[in-house]
Amino acid sequence: VLLGDGDATADPAKGQIESGTRATNQCTQAVTEAKAAAAAASPNATWVYSIAYLADTTTGTGKASCKTDASTVSACTTMQNIASDPSKFYSVGGSCISSSNPNTTDLVSIFKNVATSLLKMRRIPNSTL
After folding, report:
1. Rounded to an integer, what distance in angstroms lies between the CA atom of residue 115 and that of residue 93?
2. Angle at 58 between CA 71 and CA 84, to 5 degrees
3. Model pTM score
4. How confident is the model at residue 51 (pLDDT cuts 50, 70, 90)?
């Protein structure tokens, strides 16, 4: 479960990240790594849940978030794309809205939904009692 604003803004000038390829396209790199983590666990499914907390939806020149990425990448789309699938994406506050979970917008409800999705119903055979 990744909870964040989706705004990757580490600055090499401030010592927050090394210079070079890691300092560019930070939001895109986050999506790539989340997808790789989920795929590495195959054939056993690993789900990546993403909760966008006050994530920005602004794109274009002069945007406030994901400044190291192309102008079409926003913090909201980053958080959406980090999730394994649309049902595992939630949003809290701001202009970023989860189309799959538009009515689940508080953290307590979101974590209850995540916990419920992780539980499997199991039938215990009569002979085990």
Report:
1. 21
2. 85
3. 0.83
4. very high
DSSP the chain: -EEE-------GGGTSS-SSGGGSSHHHHHHHHHHHHHHHTTTS-----EEEES-----STT-SS-TTS-TT--HHHHHHHHSSSGGGEEEESSS---SSSTT--SHHHHHHHHHHHH----PPPGGG-
**Local confidence band at 68 (pLDDT 50, 70, 90 cut-offs):** confident
Q: Comparing C-alpha atoms, which of 4, 27, 26, 23 is closest to residue 15?
A: 23
| CA–CA separation, 63 and 58 (whole Å) | 6
- The mean per-residue pLDDT over the stretch 14-22 comes to 78
91 beta partners:
52
